[in-house]
Design goal:
Layout: E1 2-3, E2 6-7, E3 35-40, H1 44-57, E4 69-73, H2 78-88, E5 95-98, H3 105-117, E6 124-133, E7 140-148, E8 156-164, H4 169-188, E9 194-200, H5 207-226, E10 233-240, E11 249-250, E12 256-257, E13 263-265, E14 276-280, E15 292-299, H6 305-315, H7 330-346
Parallel strand pairs: 3-4, 3-5, 6-9, 9-10
Antiparallel strand pairs: 1-2, 6-7, 7-8, 10-15, 11-12, 13-14, 14-15
Helix pairs in contact: 2-3, 3-7, 4-5
Length: about 350
């Protein structure tokens, strides 16, 4: 990893650069100038320690962190937190941080609900799609859709769609994808030349439905968004995490161990009629590492299998909530977090004003 003339070295086999990143400047740091911290009187010392720690670790990373607007509340009732947020959060507030004394779900849901309401490929958009069951309404699912907005694949535009068991996800997703393409055009001045969709939450029995129903509608949606002459190159990759397959690497003296992160298996154990591969993207300290299975069910991108596999692995490095690699490409995990938040806590479409913010992390 390199930033200008600085080189970051880390042990690739550990797939974790949290220790090595300490004191290193970020590629695109963002100053935190306008933020609010809400805490109870009991947690005031903890809040002060947190602010001091952030002030120390921010500058070496290239971030200037200003003093927050402190808001001490008398108790930990949900209404106290919500009232403080309504009073303190302004239009230009960058972040509101609440220190919670316990991990009660109802308090977390109330705060999140309040917050929600208030190597490069040229011209590439990466899309993550995942679903989660809505806990408030039986038979209804939430689809999370997250699309990249810039060349570095670090800015995202998100939306949700709801569907009953008798409906197809793509029926509502097409409208959201068209909105994402319009936003991409607004940001970049042009529509993407390639669109790669990582589709999570699909079982083997649903692959035919995805191929025959979802993909044609998705491609038609892309063309409608850009006009009759717009015909992007499209790849659709089904991501499967819940598998029983395990792989082992031969180590010194014939011993077996986990394969190193970045290991690709695309022969022998893959199906000849599929364009699929297994990727080991993580490192584990105990037990056996679980690979992720990728099935490329549609591909007109022109990318070689090696390039598709490399892109998939690189996307596993770009999840903001973890200083290392994760099991799936970052847009997939973002889509899961979004669908989980809406299905568990919000139960309705979030505010469109938050679409270009990763508020669900």
């Amino acid at each position: 990893m390199q930033r200008y003339d600085a080189v970051l070295n880390y042990k690739q086999e550990d797939a974790d650069w949290s220790r090595d990143m300490r004191g290193k400047e970020l590629v695109t740091p963002v100053d935190l100038q306008r933020w609010v911290i809400v805490f109870t009187r009991k947690n005031s010392a903890m809040a002060q320690d947190l602010v001091q720690t952030l002030s120390k670790v921010g500058p070496p990373m290239g971030m200037r962190i200003a003093q927050p607007t402190p808001c001490e509340i008398p108790d930990d009732r949900n209404d106290s937190y919500l009232s403080a947020l309504r009073q303190q959060v302004q239009q230009d507030t960058q972040m509101a941080l609440c220190i919670l004394p316990t991990n009660r779900k109802d308090r977390y849901d109330a705060i999140k609900n309040s917050a929600v309401l208030i190597t490069q490929l040229k011209g590439l958009m990466v899309v993550g799609i995942d679903t989660y069951h809505d806990s408030a309404k039986k038979g209804r699912s939430v689809g999370g859709i997250v699309c990249s907005m810039n060349r570095n694949l670090t800015r995202y535009y998100s939306s949700t769609t709801f569907q009953m068991q008798t409906q197809e996800l793509v029926d509502g997703a097409c409208i959201k994808l068209r909105g994402a393409l319009e936003k991409y055009h607004e940001v970049n001045g042009a529509l993407p030349e390639r669109i790669i969709v990582f589709r999570d939450g699909v079982g083997d029995g649903q692959l035919q439905a995805v191929h025959e129903h979802e993909i044609p509608q998705m491609i038609d949606c892309f063309k409608k968004a850009g006009g009759t002459e717009y015909s992007p190159k499209v790849g659709v990759v089904v991501v499967k995490k819940r598998i029983n397959t395990r792989f082992f690497a031969s180590l010194n003296r014939g011993q077996l161990g986990n394969p190193p992160p970045g290991t690709i298996i695309d022969t022998e154990v893959t199906k000849p009629e599929w364009y699929d591969f297994f990727l080991v993207s993580q490192s584990v300290r105990q037990g056996t590492v679980t690979p992720t299975h990728y099935n490329v069910v549609w591909d007109t991108t022109g990318l070689k299998p090696d390039h598709m596999q490399r892109l998939t692995y690189k996307m596993c490095h770009l999840y903001y909530n973890w200083p290392g690699t994760i099991r799936v490409p970052a847009p997939c995990q973002y889509a899961h977090k979004l669908a989980f938040l809406v299905g568990q806590s919000i139960h309705r479409d979030p505010s469109p004003a938050l679409a270009d913010r990763l508020y669900f992390l």
